[in-house]
Known about the structure:
Layout: E1 2-6, H1 13-25, E2 28-31, E3 34-36, H2 41-56, E4 60-64, H3 74-108, H4 113-131, H5 140-161, E5 177-181, H6 186-199, E6 204-208, E7 219-221, H7 237-244, H8 250-264, H9 274-287, H10 291-313
Parallel strand pairs: 5-6, 5-7
Antiparallel strand pairs: 1-3, 1-4, 2-3
Amino acid sequence: MLLIHQLPAKPAYARVKVWRRLQALGAVTVKNAVYALPCNEETQEDFAWLAREIRELGGEAVVSEAQLIDGLSDEELRGLFTTARTEDYRRLAEEAASVERRLADEAANGELSEVAGHVARLRRQVGEVAAIDFFDSDGRETVEKTLARLESRLQEGRDTAMPQQNQSPASALGGKLWVTREHVQIDRIASAWLVRRFIDPVAHFKFVPGRAYQPRSGEVRFDMFEGEYTHEGDRCTFEVLLQRAGLDDPALAAIGEIIHDVDLKDGKYGRDETAGIRTVMAGIAAAHRDDEQRIARGSAVLDDLYEYFKSQLGGSERAS
């Protein structure tokens, strides 16, 4: 499937904006201003949305299904995709290896938080690349193995540094596999962000159909039927996690009020920011079908929202 477009000279930022969107979609260049994606329902929607953005910027755009006849074979086009993703994995593997080399020094000094932050960021980036890796490119296994070693060593470091009896409620939740319903929306996106940023920076998530799922040892279910962390009374899952993890943070409480009103639709708190966050999260869900990518995009929004509320109300990175 091809996107053929033309942009006006102004505004100057339009070309950069469109280029970044194309990179995020995993599109490859066939020729100047001609980009390709494998043809499926999701990529058709992605190109259609981008074409609309281009027209709103004053440009022209056409989306079409195409059959390659001369000049570029299907195999060569597939090679463009795999080369791009292999390079992405190579770059992430190099970063992960660099973090692994630093881990021994950080662990010796008892300073694991910075390394954990790097590992969490790399884990999100691997998920984003995997979401646009249409042909199972080489390199993912290498970076996944390095991240798995890092996550294991970080968990060992936390266990050594903090005996079980001295752990805060949030710390006691580390090292779990977090399970929730697939097709995540705002409460699950926000809860996943809360877990990764304030409870377990290297948390893994598993997405399942829902009601019929039988949990396994080491799994914690959230925002799903009979889950360990789900709605209680008039509180959404995010609010329940906040309370039970002992996260007493005014900035997080403000975010919880927004998530509550969007998820439960009861207008209980009526914060001015709610309508905007509702729209942004709905846009993320519409633009991305992959659950990890929805969480990654939503987490970026919530990171900024948290910084805003922290500047207004105060807050701490890891309350207990």
